[in-house]
Amino acid sequence: MSLKNKVAVVTGGGKGIGRAVSVQLARDGAAVAVWDLDAKSADETVALITQAGGRALSCVGDAAGKDGIAASLTRTRSELGPVSILVNNAGMTGFVPFMEITEEAWDRMIAVNLKGPFLCTRAMLPDMLAAGWGRIINISSSSAQTGAPAMAHYVSSKGGVIAFTKALAIEYAARGITVNNVPPGFIDTPMLRASPLDVDAVAAVAPMKRPGKPEDIAAAVSYLASEAAGYVTGQTLSVNGGRYLL
Fold this sequence. Notes:
This protein is of the alpha/beta class. It has one domain (7-229): Rossmann fold, CATH 3.40.50. It contains 9 helices and 6 strands. It has a 6-stranded parallel sheet, with helices on both faces. Strand 4 (85-88), helix 4 and strand 5 form a beta-alpha-beta unit. The radius of gyration is 17 Å and the shape is globular. The mean pLDDT is 95.
């Protein structure tokens, strides 16, 4: 699925799902701007891409803050060109019983997981509108489909991402821009390994008896970013090994 002459921004592209997505989109032919708070991780992703013959740059900053977004976008446009693909992947998680979630923790979760995609999309949408072509892919969460204990703030933020996807898809369907979301389910990433979950125990009761790989999410993003998905918008493409089937 060729993305030649396309420029992609992947937020949180330094590791895990974001790294796999960045590498895959570069493999598909896109020039990739890897945005991340961690400079070392972003540079490592860029090195993987350039060593394989692709084009990429790393931008360090907060994808949930207007100033960081503006600076990274200016550099991306200057070095790679106008943005045609946006993958809103940057996010945070948390496991806290509902009655122990502070107002500050709630606000931070919403700011990173929901306001961040809003700000990034608003900043890059003009490039897509000018081109009459664009792909916005939001990384949500299967937890927003099923619910999850001790994660009310996280689930609420990711549920908002799914609703945000649908609203934008309808608003821009006639302008050549598709908006879809991928809710990962039980993907083996550094974030999962840092959680309080017993990964092996959860895998034992999962339909496929194993966690997914970041590359599984990257494959879904690759499809949604491609011309082959030009008539697909407002959709939730679940990649969770059968965890959620309704």
